């Protein structure tokens, strides 16, 4: 092993470059098992963020199903999800450009089966005969708020764009048919709730013509979150509920609801997108499931008769998208030393086979920082959680006595969570000598309903305190330099970042990726799904207008005294560009160093390779200019005002 070179933190040369990240990395999701074939979706930055449906045939052949230029992505709720379904080798999918439903039969080209109207579709299930698709439809034909319904679409072609089956509530999701097609289950909720606040589970009988009757509520309410209703192969309805404070498994039989394996663990997830799955039936008697404890996933098998839960050994620490069929399970999986992948498990032998990695580049342990779980003392004698990544690079060491810079990462949502899975963007920083702490602040998912609701009425306070205290805790431990603390985050994490930079005198620089600087416009200038989100996170508007102003960084730039960089997509419908633009102009007018990069054609989150690269390199470049460390590699300069 060659002798380590001495260089300041931040100046280490790393093989983990932005070019390698965008060239070799894809997004993976949308797992399905249909017959003998396996399906998933790939988001490809090198194809301008196009999402492709991929099939692995029973003979092992892997092929793309959706041809150029089709993009299998729905915009229902803007976040989308579950944008395709398969029946007997026929693929049905939403196309991003026009949001119409398309049908792709073997050997043919995709053809639209819904009209050119302002309809969006998501969360599909086909009846046993393949005549109809049951799905969520979002109607944007009117001038007011979009109208969400459950509809039945003729699978051969539907000139009307679907027949409305259920309407009247603000939101619907998860239409699921019993195996014989005789019953339909679904979830519904109303403003101001989001699906992790309170949902209702309904069931109905399905008639021969596909219509439904005898609609009945089964479980849930405004204070109970139901997740992933699913019918067993023998026609029993299962679901996940947090009625015990934890998202646990339940089933309904003979009008009675029973818990299956009560425990302080999360079997559910916040339903930001459609089609999320944490359990599936291998057989009527066996469920393959995953649950989370303290940010780490566990794989297990549940016997539906004895209710014995048996953990399945796996090297992965994060699992999602669980699907199963006799003898096999399918899931998305990753760990601190393994990139996310589509994984198939033979339930007989216990062997796991990777079908597709999110990146084909190899992980070099000599440049990989392993996360350390930390409990963060915070306000009110409470604790928050996080994963600390110390700098790691076999080729370099820092000068004697120097401590590393720290980058605090604030996840989005805010009802989201960070997990200890290999993240090339985190390793991009740690391999250059910058420590990272990824924080699960109060309000994050994975620690029970009470922890998740810690943010209610306190957004912009609890999250900011927890991220700030994470930095102070690590500095007090001696792990990082208290004078070189930075914070970054996207979306809700961008809001937390802006608040932390404005209302706390701890951080010396920060980066907001499509973050909210002013809460008031967000109430009226965002999409339907989150239009009333702040009722719970802050308070009802306009009754609590003063509170909205108090929690908005844009109103207190006089308190701001450190540099920031802002990144924004020009077509973001969730956090519109004027949020970042207004913040940029205010900071610029104050004379503080500030930079603003807006990416044409991007929405909420960047999907194009060149923009992902530019944002990652641009953030590092900005920190180098602020803290005065030299970069090991040339980076295209970012224009910085007032530097």
Model description:
There is one protein chain. This protein has 643 residues and is of the alpha+beta class. The protein has 2 domains: 18-280, Neuraminidase (6 Propeller); 374-627, Alpha/Beta hydrolase fold, catalytic domain (Rossmann fold), CATH 3.40.50. 15% of the residues lie in helices and 36% in strands. It contains 10 helices and 38 strands. An 8-stranded mixed β-sheet has the order 30-31-34-33-35-36-37-38, with helices on both faces. α1 (18-24) packs antiparallel against α10 (609-627).
Q: What topology does this entry show?
A:
Layout: E1 5-6, H1 18-24, E2 27-34, E3 37-44, E4 50-56, E5 62-64, E6 84-87, E7 90-94, E8 101-104, E9 111-112, E10 119-126, E11 132-139, E12 147-154, E13 163-166, E14 171-177, E15 183-189, E16 200-206, E17 212-220, E18 226-231, E19 237-241, E20 248-253, E21 256-259, E22 279-283, E23 286-293, E24 296-303, E25 309-312, E26 318-325, E27 328-335, E28 338-346, E29 352-357, E30 372-378, E31 382-389, E32 396-397, E33 405-410, H2 424-430, E34 434-440, H3 449-452, H4 462-477, E35 485-490, H5 492-503, E36 509-513, H6 519-524, H7 533-537, H8 545-550, E37 564-569, H9 577-590, E38 594-599, H10 609-627
Parallel strand pairs: 1-32, 33-34, 33-35, 35-36, 36-37, 37-38
Antiparallel strand pairs: 2-3, 3-4, 4-5, 6-7, 7-8, 8-9, 10-11, 11-12, 12-13, 14-15, 15-16, 16-17, 18-19, 19-20, 20-21, 22-23, 23-24, 24-25, 26-27, 27-28, 28-29, 30-31, 31-34
């Amino acid at each position: 092993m060659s002798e380590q070179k001495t260089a300041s933190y931040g100046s280490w040369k790393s093989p983990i470059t932005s070019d390698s990240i965008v060239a070799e990395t894809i997004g993976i999701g949308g797992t399905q098992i249909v017959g003998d074939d396996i399906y998933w979706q790939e988001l490809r930055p090198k194809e301008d963020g196009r999402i492709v449906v991929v099939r692995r045939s029973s003979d092992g052949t892997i092929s793309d199903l959706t041809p150029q230029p089709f993009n299998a992505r729905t915009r229902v709720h803007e976040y989308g999800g579950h944008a395709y379904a398969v029946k007997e080798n026929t693929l049905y999918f939403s196309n991003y450009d026009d949001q119409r439903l398309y049908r792709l039969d073997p050997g043919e080209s995709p053809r639209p089966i819904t009209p050119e109207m302002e309809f969006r579709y998501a969360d599909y299930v086909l009846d046993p005969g393949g005549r109809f698709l049951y799905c969520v439809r979002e109607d944007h034909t009117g001038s007011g708020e979009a109208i969400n319904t459950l509809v039945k679409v003729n699978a051969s072609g539907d000139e009307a764009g679907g027949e409305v089956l259920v309407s009247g509530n603000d939101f619907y999701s998860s239409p699921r048919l019993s195996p014989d097609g005789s019953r339909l289950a679904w979830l519904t909720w109303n403003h101001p709730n989001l699906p992790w606040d309170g949902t209702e589970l309904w069931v109905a009988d399905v008639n021969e013509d596909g219509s439904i009757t005898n609609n009945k509520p089964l479980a849930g309410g405004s204070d109970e979150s139901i997740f992933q209703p699913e019918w067993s192969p023998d026609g029993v309805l299962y679901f996940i509920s947090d009625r015990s404070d934890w998202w646990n498994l339940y089933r309904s039989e003979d009008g009675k609801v029973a818990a299956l394996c009560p425990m302080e663990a999360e079997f559910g997830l916040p339903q930001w997108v459609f089609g999320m799955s944490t359990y599936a039936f291998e057989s009527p008697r066996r469920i393959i499931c995953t649950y989370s404890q303290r940010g780490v996933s566990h794989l297990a098998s549940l016997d539906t008769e004895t209710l014995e839960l048996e953990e399945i050994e796996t090297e992965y620490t994060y699992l999602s998208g669980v699907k199963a069929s006799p003898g096999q399970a399918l899931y998305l999986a990753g760990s601190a030393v393994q990139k996310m992948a589509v994984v198939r498990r033979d339930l007989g032998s216990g062997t796991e086979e990777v079908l597709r990695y999110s990146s084909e580049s190899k992980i070099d342990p000599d440049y990989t920082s392993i996360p350390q779980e930390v409990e963060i003392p915070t306000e009110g004698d409470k604790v928050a959680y996080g994963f600390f990544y110390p700098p790691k690079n076999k080729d370099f060491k820092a000068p004697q006595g120097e401590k590393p810079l720290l980058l605090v990462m604030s996840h989005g949502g805010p009802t989201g969570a960070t997990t200890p899975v290999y993240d090339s963007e985190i390793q991009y920083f740690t391999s250059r000598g910058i420590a990272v702490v990824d924080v699960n602040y109060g309000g994050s998912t994975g620690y029970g309903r009470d922890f998740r609701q810690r943010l209610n009425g306190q957004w912009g306070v609890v999250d900011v305190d927890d991220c700030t205290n994470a930095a102070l805790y690590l500095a007090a431990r001696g792990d990082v330099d208290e004078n070189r603390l930075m914070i970054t985050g996207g979306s809700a994490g961008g809001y937390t970042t802006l608040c932390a930079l404005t209302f706390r005198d701890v951080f010396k620089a920060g980066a907001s990726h499509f973050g909210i600087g002013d809460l008031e416009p967000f109430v009226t200038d965002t999409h339907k799904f989150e239009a009333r989100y702040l009722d719970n996170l802050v308070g009802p508007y306009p009754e609590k207008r003063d509170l909205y102003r108090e929690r908005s960084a844009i109103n207190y730039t006089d308190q701001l005294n450190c540099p920031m960089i802002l990144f924004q997509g020009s077509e973001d419908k969730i956090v519109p560009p004027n949020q970042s633009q207004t913040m940029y102009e205010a900071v610029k007018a104050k004379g503080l160093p500030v930079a603003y990069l807006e990416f044409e054609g991007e929405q909420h989150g960047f999907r194009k390779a060149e923009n992902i690269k530019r944002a990652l390199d641009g953030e590092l470049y900005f920190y180098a200019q602020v803290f005065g460390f030299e970069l090991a590699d040339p980076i295209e300069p970012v224009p910085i005002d007032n530097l």
